[in-house]
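Tokens as discussed.
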């Protein structure tokens, strides 16, 4: 054997398992970083045959679909390579959803029996700024609501194994349509509703109406496995009806203060009458097992006394559940106070700490009472702990001031101050992305370091310019999925 071939065969190779760990680290599930991750993974699938299975597995874990053409291409791809079906766990339908050929309405039929491991579905209408940049063709007009039909819940029932569902900027014809869409998803565990609205409130569908009726403790279950509910900027009447229908199954509730629905609710039908003067606050009385209440706080809550009363009334109703339903409950309850973090609507941590100076007195006024003995000390009337989330860099500097805002909880050891990034593997994305790509190309070109760095720089520039989803990128799909 020639000497150079002996040297080539003896050159060290990193274990495939180590390469797979690097490939896993490339992917990031946050939407703003998904596109770059998908393109990088596509290149990984082309570099070495040994990398392809793991790259495919991560690449198809999250699939982003923007229109019906992409939806049909995905179906054809899954038919061409059936082994990819088991990799798809999260499906995002993001684009113009309120049009006649809406991907929301078509995906249960087009992808029927093709996604056996699907667990999470995102339904997200794009922002107005994106619509202005990418307008619809002149022959397609937007509809006032999602064009669901009477058989849509039946078709959707083939995906009843979904465990998490996200609605973002979705508008239904009526609240009843919203309930009927949810009803067949009997295994749903987490429901996220952000700016969900309807043209009219209408009647409650039978599936939700039976769930709200309580006849000596017997009730028809609606989404019996749903334990987490997030409701932001949703109509008050619909939000309360949804919570009432879910009832005891919910243990985690996420709310935003103030709540600002995009449209005023209109009511149709004699069976529903919205009071002209609704009492303030969100009634949590129908959720006796609520252990974690997460309050996302906007800066306008501080100077607005009316909105502070809404928060007060919500906490009062939560406190009442511990006395009415199970006064001797040992459930450890947590009240999370977080600043609202939304792109374009964030505010400084210092302003959030100043807001807590006001809200701390409100929280202690509701959840603490004077002791019955002669000590005159305050005591906490429910088994609750206040958890305040601060930006990591302000954690230590803000801790003393937050403790002063909640003196009773702090003195009794019932106050926790944590990083608002806790539980997430946050990274310096731009820096780490470059490092990851250099590692990948160094593995691909172990004998030519300069070529590896040059290819990584070229790919970094390409990713910054691409901006397209999985099914729109220029990587040949036939190469990614080939055996």
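Sequence:
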């Amino acid at each position: 054997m020639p000497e150079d071939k002996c040297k080539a065969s003896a050159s060290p190779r990193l274990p495939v398992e180590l390469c797979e760990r690097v490939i896993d680290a490339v992917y990031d599930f946050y939407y703003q970083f998904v596109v770059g991750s998908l393109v990088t993974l596509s290149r990984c699938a082309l570099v070495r045959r040994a990398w392809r299975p793991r790259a495919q597995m991560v690449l198809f874990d999250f699939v982003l679909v923007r229109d019906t053409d992409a939806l049909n291409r995905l179906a054809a791809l899954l038919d061409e390579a059936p082994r990819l079906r088991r990799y798809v766990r999260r499906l995002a339908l993001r684009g113009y959803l309120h049009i006649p050929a809406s991907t929301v309405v078509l995906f249960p039929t087009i992808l029927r029996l093709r996604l056996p491991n699907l667990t999470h579905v995102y339904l997200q209408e794009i922002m107005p700024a994106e619509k202005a940049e990418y307008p619809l063709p002149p022959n397609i007009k937007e509809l006032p609501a999602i064009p669901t039909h009477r058989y849509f819940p039946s078709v959707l029932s083939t995906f009843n194994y979904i465990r998490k569902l996200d609605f973002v900027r979705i508008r239904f014809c009526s609240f009843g349509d919203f309930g009927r869409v949810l009803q067949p998803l009997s295994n749903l565990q987490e429901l996220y509703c952000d700016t969900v609205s309807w043209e009219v409130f209408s009647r409650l569908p039978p599936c939700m109406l039976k769930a709200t009726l309580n006849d000596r403790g017997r009730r028809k279950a609606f989404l019996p496995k749903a334990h987490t509910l997030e409701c932001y900027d949703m109509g008050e009447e619909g939000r309360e009806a949804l919570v009432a229908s879910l009832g005891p199954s919910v243990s985690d509730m996420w709310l935003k203060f103030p709540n600002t629905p995009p449209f005023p609710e209109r009511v149709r039908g004699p069976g529903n009458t919205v009071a002209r003067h609704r009492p303030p606050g969100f009634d949590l009385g129908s959720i006796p097992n609520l252990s974690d209440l997460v309050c996302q706080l906007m800066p306008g809550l501080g100077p607005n006394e009316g909105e502070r009363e809404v928060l007060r009334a919500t906490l009062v109703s939560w406190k009442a559940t511990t006395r009415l339903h199970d006064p001797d409950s040992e459930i450890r309850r947590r009240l999370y106070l977080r600043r609202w973090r939304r792109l374009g609507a964030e505010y400084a941590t210092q302003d959030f700490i100043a807001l807590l100076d006001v809200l701390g007195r409100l929280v202690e006024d509701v959840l603490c009472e004077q002791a019955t003995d002669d000590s005159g000390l305050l005591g906490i009337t429910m088994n609750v702990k206040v958890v305040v989330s601060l930006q990591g860099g302000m954690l230590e500097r803000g801790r003393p001031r937050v403790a002063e805002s909640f003196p009773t909880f702090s003195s009794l050891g019932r106050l926790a101050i944590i990083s608002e990034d806790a539980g997430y593997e946050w990274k310096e994305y731009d820096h780490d992305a470059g490092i990851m790509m250099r590692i990948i190309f160094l593995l691909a070109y172990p004998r030519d370091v300069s070529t590896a760095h040059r290819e990584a720089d070229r790919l970094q520039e390409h990713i910054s310019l691409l901006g397209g989803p999985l099914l729109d990128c220029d990587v040949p799909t036939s190469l990614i999925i080939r055996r």
